Hints:
Layout: H1 6-10, H2 12-15, E1 19-24, H3 32-43, H4 53-64, E2 68-75, H5 81-96, E3 99-104, H6 105-110, E4 118-121, E5 125-131, E6 137-143, H7 146-162, E7 164-165, H8 166-174
Helix pairs in contact: 5-8
Organism: Actinomadura syzygii
InterPro entries: DUF6879
Domain DUF6879: 7-170
Amino acid sequence: MSLLVGDQFGQLFTSFEHTAFRLEVRDRYDEAYENESLRRFVAGEPDDLPWMQDWLTMIRGATTEGRRFSRVRVVSMPLTDYSRFGLWCAQFTNGAGEDIRYLERDPAGALKLPNHDYWLFDSRRLVRMHIDDADRFLGGEVIEDPAEIVNHNYWRDAAWHHAVRRDDFAKEHLGLV
Length: 177
């Protein structure tokens, strides 16, 4: 199995035509660039999220071109520090044009969503995310099996239908928008 990493993986976000959807099912991701921002968030310290600026610029550009990013985050309750941090960060990505929504783990289980993360580009290009036991991203595997692609489209639609808009979820669970 060959995994896309680095620039190869990054090209996925500039080469799609219409839609990029992500399903996130983990309560934590260990990204070195986020660790200091997570520490600051938990400590209540200000942070300008320098690691996030390129992502926000890319989303704004895609949105201007008429391309759409969306995401559903499956979260455990009560929220972990990492999930609270992600919920706080989502205000900026939503502001840039990405539509991030939240789905609690129990309802997600009832929907029989997969237990792996994936990106689905233009409803036809499926990239399964590989993440190790220490929550580190290893790379993305392109899946070409049409039946698997159809299943992941179904899961996208089911998750999206049951997910809650970021602002509504933040207001309900954290008292913030």
